[in-house]
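Milestone 3.1: sequence recovery, worked example.
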């Protein structure tokens, strides 16, 4: 009995999923349920029906009118090149869903044929979804292609086949680059892998739009590239972890779109910062307060969110000062500098109150002194730029001489004022 049981498990009949295709179907159904659950968390189906049903009826009425009635007047103004360009943009979106999981590296290590089976079916599933997506968009554009731009039905069908074949090859070429390369090399190879076949597709669609046989020949060429790329993908070794990572990105794409306005995008892990990569000292002072000041400035500059807010507010402020009436420029400069220094003081209080900073033996007086110096250093560039936006339009050549000392004085004064009011209290 034990021998028979061992033989049954060795043959695969003792597993919950005896074959690779069965395991793939199970994961595919789980993937569909997962995507449906993600959509349900963000969409009220009752409200959605009230939008889909009237929208579908209205869209169907317009679509029927495009086939039976007169075409809109703007169709004769817009060139045909926008159709293949829009389709090319569609071809460059999306990715491959392979339905591989991290545990396969451990539990399916002795069953490489299962992994290849899941990989093959995942690629076929992804290409099928790509074809359906292209066909749906093409169906919406079809009345404009045939009635608006005068393509014959055979040419329109051949263009559809060319679009699908080009989408397959672009999808596979981009996927291979993503799973094989990292960092700068990935982008260096991904650009030609995506732009060359898509650009060639646009050129072929323009040159041979009235020649269906040539379009079919080009579609056959793209299909041959797809078959060769698929074989290369199945023989590729050493990319399992990259496959899992890319697959996870694609499966979480819908969740990312729905949560884009709710959650912040996670910051990528960096072994070295973009700015001050060698952690060189910013200030000549070697006192503890000077080191603390430099650490706060680096914390602001190295944080993408804080740096983006600083630069954005600076750009908006200078633009507002340039277009403001002359009698409001100085008042607006004072108000905007007050706002910037208030935000800088809030940033410093958050930085100095961090639990990690609390470990360091800084007194309250040292923190206030370091914060005052840091606020002055961070406020002066903003005040100088804003002062230039005020002085140069008002005083011409004299403004070129005045804006730097005036901006330095305004930034230093407002920063010291906020340091006295807010930092000494904390």
């Amino acid at each position: 009995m034990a021998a028979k049981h061992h033989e049954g498990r060795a043959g695969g009949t003792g597993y919950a999923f005896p074959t690779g295709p069965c395991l793939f179907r199970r994961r595919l159904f789980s993937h569909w349920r997962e995507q449906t659950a993600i959509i349900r968390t963000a969409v009220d189906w009752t409200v959605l029906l009230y939008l889909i049903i009237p929208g579908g009826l209205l869209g169907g009425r317009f679509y029927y009118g495009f086939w039976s009635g007169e075409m809109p007047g703007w169709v004769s103004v817009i060139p045909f090149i926008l159709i293949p360009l829009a389709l090319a943009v569609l071809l460059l979106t999306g990715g491959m869903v392979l339905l591989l999981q991290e545990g396969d590296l451990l539990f399916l290590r002795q069953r490489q044929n299962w992994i290849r089976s899941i990989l093959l079916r995942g690629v076929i599933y992804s290409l099928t979804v790509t074809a359906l997506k292209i066909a749906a968009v093409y169906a919406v554009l079809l009345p404009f292609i045939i009635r608006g731009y005068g393509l014959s039905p055979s040419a329109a069908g051949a263009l559809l086949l060319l679009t699908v074949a080009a989408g397959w090859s672009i999808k596979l070429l981009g996927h291979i680059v993503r799973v094989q390369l990292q960092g700068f090399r990935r982008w260096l190879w991904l650009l030609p892998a995506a732009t060359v076949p898509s650009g060639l597709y646009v050129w072929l669609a323009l040159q041979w739009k009235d020649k269906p046989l040539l379009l079919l020949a080009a579609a056959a060429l793209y299909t041959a590239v797809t078959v060769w790329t698929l074989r290369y993908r199945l023989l590729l070794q050493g990319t399992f972890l990259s496959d899992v990572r890319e697959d996870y990105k694609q499966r979480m794409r819908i969740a990312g779109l729905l949560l884009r306005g709710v959650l912040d995008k996670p910051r990528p892990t960096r072994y070295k910062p973009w700015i001050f990569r060698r952690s060189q000292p910013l200030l000549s002072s070697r006192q503890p307060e000077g080191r603390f000041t430099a650490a706060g400035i680096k914390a602001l500059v190295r944080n993408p969110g804080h740096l983006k807010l600083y630069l954005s507010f600076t750009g908006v402020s200078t633009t507002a000062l340039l277009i403001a009436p002359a009698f409001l420029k100085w008042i607006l400069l004072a108000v905007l500098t007050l706002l910037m220094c208030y935000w800088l003081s809030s940033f410093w209080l958050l930085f100095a109150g961090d639990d990690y900073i609390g470990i360091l033996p800084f007194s309250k007086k040292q923190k206030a002194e370091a914060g005052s110096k840091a606020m002055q250093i961070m406020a002066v560039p903003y005040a100088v730029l804003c002062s230039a936006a005020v002085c140069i339009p008002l005083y011409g050549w004299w403004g070129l001489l005045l804006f730097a000392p005036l901006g330095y004085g305004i930034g230093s004064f407002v920063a010291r004022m906020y340091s006295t009011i807010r930092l000494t209290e904390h």
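The chain has 17 helices and no strands. Residues 1-14 have pLDDT under 50 and may be disordered.
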